[in-house]
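ARCHIVE CARD
CATEGORY: sequence design from structure
SOURCE FIELD: tokenized fold
FIELD CONTENT:
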């Protein structure tokens, strides 16, 4: 699996309506397998430098590339730049997952 991870820095002004529009828009990305949005409330030492983490999962790097270069992907990227700008960090990651929910204690 390949993920697009977006970190939104904590800031005084809320991200607002464009943030919500972005979250809805990315659901239309071709090849999207999973969307996870985490609202960060703290870190081990107290306040965290990021207030949100958005993870978009695709089958592989090619699927991610195709999604980002699609019409929806370009629109979403431009919207992210408008509302997030320098307060956002975008990462691309290959992910290995394991499910431990079925393990017996």
């Amino acid at each position: 699996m390949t993920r697009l991870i977006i970190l939104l820095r904590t800031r005084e002004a809320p991200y607002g309506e464009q943030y919500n529009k972005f979250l809805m828009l990315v659901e239309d990305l071709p090849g999207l397998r999973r969307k996870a949005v985490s609202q960060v409330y703290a870190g081990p030492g107290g306040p965290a430098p990021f207030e949100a983490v958005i993870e978009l999962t695709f089958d592989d790097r090619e699927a991610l590339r195709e999604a980002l270069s699609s019409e929806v992907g370009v629109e979403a990227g431009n919207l992210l730049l408008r509302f997030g700008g320098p307060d956002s960090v975008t990462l691309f990651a290959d992910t290995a997952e394991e499910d431990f929910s079925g393990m017996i204690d």
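CARD ANNOTATION: The chain is about 30% helix and 30% strand. The chain has a mean pLDDT of 94.
SHELF: design records, drawer C
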